[in-house]
Specification:
single chain, seven-stranded parallel sheet, globular, alpha/beta, 7 strands, Rossmann fold
């Protein structure tokens, strides 16, 4: 039987075919899941519709959601509830920082830009999870929330306040796991190596960071292939992960484990 047979998943962040979220949606569909996609309201629905048609199956729905809006979060719940009686899993693949919060401007970034990065990239995990909590609680084998991360244990060149936001995302994961475990909801984050998606390429200096990754990672790393990340996310949505919560899972070719390049 497929790994996610009969699962109902809400997946955010499918911007282009090279995005991690697209790879997750495609793999989940191949493994038997039904999918509802969410996208930012500013993303043209016609473009999202064309991208969605390239998936292995047709999504159940495409819902525009501003994750900084309480009204939009409530509308997302109501729309999903109108399609399904429960939700088995949610992918939070949402991150944004204004240009002033990236690219080596750390000491000069204004609070307004930092607040935007924190709200969209970290607090939205709590907002989206709690907004869909009533449906996640009804999942027959427990709900699973997965977010996408980039190693926040160190300071990266040019990543600046997005790195701080990712640290907040990791911490939010642990607190959500603490508070939602008693109602059967697991919350984990996948710390992925760099992928040359639209989101990745929007970070100043991304190419320099990504180009060196393959030299450091013991298993190597293909920055154009998001499937190695999609597989572990599918596992975390499955019942095989029913004992895992509050975890940061590294999927980076082993890069995080070494202090110096090995070749």
């Amino acid at each position: 039987m497929p790994l996610l047979e009969g699962k109902r998943l809400v997946i955010s962040g499918v911007l282009t075919e090279d995005s991690i979220a697209y790879a997750v949606a495609a793999m989940a569909m191949r493994q038997g899941a039904e999918i509802i996609l969410t996208n930012a309201p500013g993303r043209p629905s016609s473009i999202m519709g064309r991208i969605a048609k390239r998936l292995p199956a047709e999504p159940v729905d495409l819902v525009p959601v501003d994750v900084t809006s309480e009204d939009d979060i409530r509308q997302l719940h109501d729309t999903v509830a109108g399609q399904w009686g429960h939700v088995d899993g949610v992918l939070h693949a949402i991150a944004y920082a204004p240009e002033a919060a990236l690219g080596g401007n750390f000491l000069n970034t204004a609070w307004e830009d930092v607040a935007t990065a924190m709200h969209v990239s970290a607090f939205s995990l709590k907002a989206m999870t709690v907004g869909l909590q009533p449906l996640l609680e009804k999942a027959p084998t427990g709900g699973s929330v997965v977010s996408l991360d980039f190693d926040a244990t160190v300071a990266w060149p040019v990543y600046d306040w997005m790195g701080v936001a990712k640290a907040a995302l990791e911490s939010t994961t642990r607190y959500l796991a603490r508070d939602l475990g008693p109602v059967g909801i697991r919350v984990n984050t996948v710390n992925a190596g760099p992928i040359r998606s639209m989101a990745g390429k929007s970070i100043p200096g991304f190419d320099g960071l990504a180009d060196n990754w393959d030299k450091q990672a013991p298993l190597g790393w293909d920055t154009k292939d998001a499937e190695p990340v999609a597989g572990p996310v599918a596992f975390l949505f499955s019942e095989l992960s029913r004992g895992i919560t509050g975890t940061v899972l590294h999927v980076d070719g082993g890069y995080h484990a070494l202090g110096a390049p090995i070749r």
